[in-house]
Write the structure tokens for this entry.
Amino acid sequence: MNPDSRLEKYAELVVGLGANVQPGQEVFILPNVGHRDLARALARASYKAGASYVHTLYGDSHIRKAMIELGPDEALSHSPEWLKTFFKSMDGNAMIATTGDPEPELLGDLDGERVARAIPLEIVQIRMQQIGENTVAWCGVGAPTEAWAQQVFGEPDVEKLWEKVAFCMRLDEPDPVAAWREHLARLRERGAALDALKPDAIRYRGPGTDLTVGLLPNARWFSGSGFTKAGIEYVANMPTEEVFTTPDCRRAEGTIRSTMPLALAGQIVRGLEFTLKDGRIVNVEAETGADLIRGQLATLENADRLGELALVTGDSRVGQSGTFFYDTLFDENATCHIAYGFGFPFVFDGEPPAEGLNVAQTHVDFMVGGPDLEVDVLLADGTAVPVIRNEEWQLA
Amino acid sequence: MTPADLIERYAELAVRIGANVQPGQEVFVYGMPEHADLVRALTRQSYRAGASYVHAIYNDQHVRRAMLEFGPDSALTYAPEWQKTLTSGMTGNALLGTTGNPEPELLADLDGERVGRAFQVEIAEIRRKQHYENTVNWCGIGAPNPGWAKQVLGEPDVERLWELVATCFRLDEDDPVAAWEAHLDRLDARGKALTDLRPDALHYRGPGTDLTVGLLPSAKWGSAGFKTAGGIRYVANMPTEEIFTTPDSRRAEGTIRSTMPLSLAGQLIRGLEFTFEDGRIVNVDAESGADIVRTQLATVENTDRLGELALVTGESRVGQTKTLYYNTLFDENATCHIAYGAGLEYAFDGEPDEGMNVSNLHVDFMVGGPELEVDALLADGTVVPLIRDEVWQLT
């Protein structure tokens, strides 16, 4: 496939299946300024899908760096009025964000505490409300860049990265949309099988890991595609290989060791280990970047409780690509992961519970899966049912 | 000097002398994605100057092209609520804009009528009010990039373009800030001499050109060195070599031929010629791009009247670089120019004269050159030469 037609096909898949842009909708594209080829292809594909208007708002980590390094304290958490209007306007419309930081370690030499504080809080609240009420059909996708390729392969081979990304996105299939629909159906069946067991808790065991996390009775296991309040089906992350839920944030005991580096706020956190007690993270260790995590946990209320559990097996396209992408969107789909921070109100049958669902201003996924990880669900009567062994799904 | 140093010094001059960012002000930086290096340097320098927050906005003309090519009609003039809020937020704050089109002919193959119609009236209204009330200290500067360098130099020699731009910017002076202050004083003295003469009209003569334009008694001649309503000095364009005023939009008779190509809405207009009667453009000819100009004149009210007259002489730094920049910010400072569309409210001390043109567009085109003669016509019929052989004639 020549690079130009691959880019257009990729954008078409993201617009058509991912954000599922409807005629007459406005589309909000949030790319990094280093992703302009993809941003432009997404704008074209959106208009071709009938968008009434495409808003493209480029982000730039260098601008953020200047603010953190040279700006006053008040700037760090400032949410400009126009930006609030921008995000609020996404209600009822479609949004596409790109990831693949062209300079993932750009903020690495900055004060971790200040980096952690640099969050536009009101914007985050608007997005959380939209996610909770499910008013936006959205999709996050990767945008290969030279710097990203450099980080992944040790050389700026952006073509090779594109091939990996295209493989994860099933663009090699004769009919990528049909392949995606089949894949999404398979993930839905896994979620249904877990729901049918009505598990009370989940247990993770592996090197450095022995953690039991409580589950909430009316929380369902979700996967790939969801529906907006208005009934538009969308795939929030592409690629996606996970089934996930929101745990009881009051019940988590034990230790968990991350099995992959985590790219966070312009730094790389390596060898992350948490100890949890009564649902709270009571100790953080890491080879690098521990300060950044500690800063987040100390600054943002309830960031020290869990918000998501996600299960991924060895047949994952991302896992099969054999590539560590240094990008959560991809790496969280290579293997099982857990997030600290806010839970998802939309996973519940009926109203979310008054207690047990974590509310916080951040949500950070970290990877815990690998060949040695064993995952069981524990039923109310104490029975342990194996869910994952040797990276294979154990439930029918 | 490494290019990174040069960009940083360039940005510092634009922030300090140009927009003159004040401690505690918010700064709005507008650029293209291809200008990211300069946008970032402007952001750093703004924070160093004490900005409370820097909003960096990238406008992508490929996204605009997608809209023009594939979007519905309603998209062409749509002004999103957030863009209105963003633009309004500039009141009382500072603005830096970068120009230098990486792909100047990107929109050239599109329907000229549609390109001409794609205009956000509501945003322009907000900006017009800010101009009128002079509430924003702002500065427009050039951002060298490979595409622009290729157009100017025939090859994508960005480093060479940076040198030229730095020369126009007086960065080769030992003390660029002092050099700029002396330069602005010189332009202001010219403006004062011409204002004091109280001319009734200007007369332009040259090949293809014989145009008389009426002047307004209360309109002054001045340089691009301004003061906001709040008293902040700023230089709206860098480089700037012009003195200018707003003419009487009811009085213009004759013909005028543009002496340089004009880069407009992604197309190049070459060989532009206008005929005026009773202040209105009654005929437009051009070797290329006439459609865009005709559509603008037909669609946007009062664009067919004049809004600005500007005089530039041969010692212009831009003129001396002997380079056509295909960029109005630079080329309008190489030589004399005229604009059709909106007049300049700030050319008046008090309320603007009713003869000032009101429009939502303002397009400069170049008319100067070695053969252009400019005279001031006084009310008593006296003819006072202003420019001959690109040399200023008034003391």
Summary: DSSP finds 13 helices and 21 strands in chain A. The two ends of chain A are 37 Å apart (CA to CA).
